[in-house]
Amino acid sequence: MSEARLLAPKLSPTEKGFRLFFLAAAIVALGQMFLIALFLLNEAAGLLATAPLGDFLFSKDWYPTYEPPEFGALALIVGSVVVTIGSSLIATPVGLGLAIYLAFLAGRRKREWIKPAVELMAGVPSVVLGFIGLAVVAPFLQDVLDLPTGLNVLNASFILALMAIPSIASLGEDALAAVPRDVLDASYALGATRWETIWKVAIPAAMSGLSTAVILGLGRALGETLVVLMVAGGAAQIPTSIFDSVRPMTATLAAEMGETAIGSAHYHALFALGAVLFVLTLAFNLLAYWLGVRWRRG
Amino acid sequence: MTKIGFLALAIISVFGLGASYQAADRPRGESVRISGSTTLLPFTQKAAEEYLKDYPQEVVTVSGTGTGEGVKSLVDGVVDLAAASRDLRPEERERAQAAKVTLRRVTVAKDGLAVIVNASNPIRELTLDQLRGIYLGTINNWRELGGQDRVIVPINRDSSSGTFEMWIEMVLGGRKHRPDAQVQSSSGAVAYAVGGNRQAIGYVGLGFLDGPVAVVAINGVKASIEAVVTGSYPISRGLYVFSRTDSSASADKFLNYLLGAKGQALLEAEGYAPAGN
Asked: How far is C-alpha B96 from the chain's CA centre?
């Protein structure tokens, strides 16, 4: 009894007050999230009055202002998924490579200026990157590869990868730096080379942090709006190559929401797109959480 | 009018719709309600503001619901004037007839879209049929039109814009455009994209012809304000206001203001071509 009281001493009124304040802050933050989700799903549900869920998810015909309108979101969902996968194929190896270089291979002086520079890159506004994609990358791709258009999956993936690389590299480096020195020393003491130590000891030990870094970087690519609006080309089709234009969900929302009559079927269809995006982002975050827990246990 | 009288009128006008098809019973007030096409909304809003400065005793309510909704409200007697970016559809005529309402059409403005290609593209003339083929996907290469052997990259406006709606109506006849057409969300962005891509084709309002782009004549007519006003340019349309033959004096007064010198000056300031009546 006396031991328990020692561990949880009686709180003074000030401490109680602070505890209440932080509890209230937590409830407000959670409540906001909950209400946003509720609003989103409620507005999205309005679509079901005009179009069945199956048509919305599995039809690729997005003609929202035609008479009669068609709200098939498949091409838009595929558009989002394709540019996210494309950017992950570029950003994951480069971002993790940069993290490994910073954590183990760069000297202290090099790390001291490379890491802040990488973190600074994460702060470049997306409109600037989008403009680079539009004015530099698009004509370059079109000229060099002789394409009909430079506004395509490849361009969007490349620019999104530029946005994801800094966060992957920075978070990844943190994870690798957190591997205890003793573990690395033990590996060297057993005669392992630097390569073997990095590959077989440090990376498995930091796997939880590394996978979280990659997933969070990709979550950013999935939700990014301005870049894909500017450089993905905007064609609501299912792409057959990386040189085709696509139209991700976020770009559709940004382009169409402003001009849509509130309460119309089109308005509800855009909210339904938002709900799909919300579910995908939630899945990404749960995956990051799950990977984190799993690797920590393993 | 007293407040109670106004309230009674409001109640009658809301609940008395069933009876209001009978022209003589229709309530008349000083208030003018105009609804309909969002294409004309910037103009009708601006005009209403200026109108109320000149005639502070009048009441004008402006809303944009789309042409179809506006015409429906006009027939129902919920509004006094309906702005429209197209003529009446046959079913709308029938509906008005069934309700024993006669509608009057007045052209308040003209609107036209210029077709542009990259300046390095030698094509300077197309027919409306060829244009339709490009946007439906049956014509895919500039070679088929007498140009270079390059794939055509058609550019659309975003589907919520009045420009897109006009294009689909006037060029494609309401048919679905090819799904691989690119999308830009403003006329300026379309001009920029066409200026940067030698294979692209796009359409913009008459005021957006900057950059390395060339205007393509359609059916032999080049887009210009004059060609739009006279109607000789094929991708031009009238923008209308519909009223009822039993409209109130206040509604007629506002409509005449839109057509008068002040209204037409505001029209041109907002970027439309004049009605040319």
From this structure: 21
Numbers of helices and strands, H then E, in chain B: 10, 11
> Is there a contact between B184 and A234 if contact means CB atoms under 8 Å apart?
yes
Backbone angles phi, psi at A244, to 5 degrees: -85, 150
Is B41 an 8 Å CB contact of chain A? no
CB-neighbour burial class of residue B34 (10 A; exposed 0-12, middle 13-18, buried 19+): buried
Q: Any chain B CB within 8 A of the CB of A146?
A: no
ipTM of the complex: 0.80
Q: Does B187 touch chain A (CB under 8 A)?
A: no
Is A150–B197 a contact, with Cβ atoms under 8 angstroms apart? yes
The rounded radius of gyration (Å) of the Cα atoms in chain B is: 22
Per residue in B54-106, pLDDT tens? Answer: 988 888 999 877 788 888 889 999 999 999 888 888 888 998 999 999 999 99
Domains of chain B: 10-110+238-274 (3.40.190.10), 111-236 (3.40.190.10)
CB contact under 8 A, B196 and A247: no
CATH-assigned architecture of domain A58-297: Orthogonal Bundle (1.10)
DSSP reduced 3-state for A118 = helix
User: How high is the pLDDT of residue A76?
Assistant: 96
Whole-angstrom distance, CA of residue A56 vs CA of residue A76: 11
Closest among B271, B246, B275, B245 to B258, alpha carbons compared: B275
The pLDDT tens digits of the residues spanning A33-86 come to 999 999 999 999 989 888 888 889 999 999 998 878 899 999 999 999 999 999
Cβ of B197 within 8 Å of Cβ of A245? The answer is no
pLDDT tens-digit series, residues A16-40: 999 999 999 999 999 999 999 999 9
CA diameter of chain B: 74
Contact yes or no for B160 and A259 at CB 8 A: yes
CA–CA separation, A258 and B38 (whole Å): 13
Q: Do B160 and A234 touch (CB under 8 A)?
A: no
DSSP B212: S
Tell me the residue length of chain A. Answer: 298
Show residues of chain A in contact with B153, CB under 8 Å.
Answer: 148-149
Residue B215: its H or E element = strand B213-218
User: Comparing C-alpha atoms, which of A272, A260, A261 is closest to residue A42?
Assistant: A272
Q: The pTM is what?
A: 0.78
Domain extents in chain A = 58-297
Chain A residue with Cα closest to B193: A134
Measure in Å the smallest separation between the Cα of A89 and chain B Cα atoms: 25
